[in-house]
Design brief:
The complex is a heterodimer of chains A (145) and B (290).
Chain A lengths: L9 E6 L3 H10 L8 E6 L7 H9 L4 E6 L10 H18 L7 E5 L5 H18 L3 H4 L7
Parallel strand pairs in A: 1-2, 1-3, 3-4
Chain B lengths: L1 H12 L5 E8 L2 E7 L2 H4 L2 E2 L17 H4 L4 E5 L1 H12 L9 E5 L21 H4 L11 E3 L11 H10 L3 H12 L7 H5 L24 H14 L9 H5 L6 H16 L27
Parallel strand pairs in B: 1-4, 4-5, 5-6
Antiparallel strand pairs in B: 1-2, 1-3
Helix pairs in contact in B: 6-11
The chains are: A alpha/beta (145), B alpha/beta (290).
């Protein structure tokens, strides 16, 4: 597959209370968006272990989205603040190890921001499409082909 | 040296401790010593060849050491930071260890080289270390060393990697990591890798493949770095223990730089300073979040 001419496979880890509901709103509002994402719903961004992101790439994801409640809006008060620190480090570590930063999207999407979710998804898909398939990690073997 | 030996003798004869964990001259260079009596205490040494971080022996799960009884530990400033880490994370009670701090002007990059300590022969991590005298100690021994400073080759290498394209960095690391045999020496030697059951050993589900396969190797080194983020004291033991010379110090140093820059946290010998992971501020930088 050529760069810019393939359908990226993107895994989205989202929190139950804000982004998942926001994505649901995008759906019920009939907003058109790229069909390239697979959503994994978790209770909170604080529940998203960095190893999930690693596993997604291992199993053939070309890009990853992590999204949850805006700061101060966490259903569990502080889960997103913990996640913010964790993913700040994970992101810079993955970049240091050679992952293109365009393959990782982090966002705050509230339950009422269906349109923002559509934009996050569409923009991420286009960024990852421009990167091309993630041959690096995929060539380590074991992923879906 | 006499100061250290006399102190160790006194601690042992008073019954304050049952074992003094320190360094001795071995047949192939300096090695750890577990002195349980005065005669053994007379073999204690400390100099710039004492690179090992003995704090790893304070893990109570190391039963052969724990069985000896209450320990005193000879600790350089970076080693004391590791002890502080164990205290901070309630792996150790302060009254269960006597800390003999040694003033340190840096250790040799290659302790077997018989070189004199200088800006070029010094271990890279020591070239940027600011701490000459450890805090948190019960006793402090040794003369105040002069501050020998050098240029950090490691920081230069990190800057060089940062300037590369992602593909170039990826192939650099794949080349380095391809030597990894998953022997887990980096984990076993680390004073702060103390989990009863490491995530890398779990099989249900298996998050990290255990075989020396490129996929599992990458996942292991990523997770190791993540789990040490904000906790690593930069004692350099992982890199020293690595039998295939993977530059693990580059990874831990990079993460430390990120933690310092984003969260203003630096490794410290004060156990009351909270770890940057597990705490947060509402105004943490979030320029990377849409």
């Amino acid at each position: 597959m050529e760069k810019g001419n393939f359908e990226p496979r993107i895994t989205a880890f989202v929190c139950n209370w804000c982004t998942y509901t926001g994505a649901d709103l995008a759906g019920t509002s009939r907003l058109q968006m790229a069909p390239n994402i697979r959503i994994v719903r978790l209770p909170c961004t604080g529940r998203i272990d960095p190893v999930f992101v690693i596993k997604a790439f291992e199993r053939g994801a070309d890009g990853v989205i992590v999204s949850g409640c805006h700061p101060a809006d966490c259903h569990y008060t502080a889960g997103n603040y913990h996640a913010r620190r964790r993913f700040a480090i994970l992101r810079e570590l993955l970049i240091f190890m050679g992952v293109d930063p365009r393959r990782m999207t982090f966002s705050w999407v509230s339950a009422s921001e269906g349109a923002k979710w559509r934009d996050v998804v569409n923009e991420t898909v286009e960024r990852v499409r421009a990167c091309g398939p993630f041959e690096g990690w995929r060539s380590l073997g074991g992923g879906l082909t | 040296m006499t100061e250290l030996r006399e102190l160790a003798r006194k601690l042992l004869s008073d019954g304050q401790v049952k074992v003094v964990i320190g360094y001795e001259e071995g047949p192939r260079g300096v090695r750890p010593l577990f002195a349980t009596d005065g005669a053994a205490a007379d073999r204690l040494i400390f100099d710039e060849r004492c690179v090992q971080n003995l704090a790893t022996y304070l893990d109570r799960r190391r039963v052969h050491v724990a069985r000896l009884g209450k320990p005193a530990i000879v600790a350089k400033p970076c080693d004391v930071k590791a002890v502080a880490g164990l205290l901070r994370e309630t792996q150790l009670k302060r009254e269960d260890v006597v800390i003999i701090g040694v003033r340190c002007g840096g250790v040799l990059a290659d302790p077997k080289s018989l070189q004199r300590l200088g800006p070029d022969t010094m271990a890279d991590r020591c070239r940027t270390c600011e701490t000459r005298e450890p805090g948190l100690v019960d006793y402090l021994v040794g003369p105040m060393p002069e501050a020998v400073r050098g240029q950090s080759g490691r920081d230069a290498k990190i800057a060089e990697l940062d300037a590369m394209t992602p593909e170039e960095r990826w192939s650099f690391w794949q080349k380095e990591l391809s030597r990894c045999t998953r022997c887990q020496a980096c984990r076993q030697v680390c004073p702060l890798c103390y989990c009863d059951r490491c995530m890398a050993d779990k099989t249900e589900p298996q998050w990290i493949e255990s075989s020396p396969h490129p996929r599992g190797i990458l996942a292991w080194h990523l997770i190791r770095a993540i789990h040490l983020a904000g906790r690593c004291v930069d004692c350099g033991e992982c890199e020293r223990a690595c039998p295939v010379s993977i530059p693990l110090g580059l990874i831990t140093r990079k993460v430390a730089q990120v933690v310092a820059q984003r969260f203003q946290h630096h490794p410290t010998d004060d156990p009351s300073v909270p770890s940057p992971i597990g705490t947060w501020r509402s105004d943490d930088p979030q320029e990377f979040i849409l």
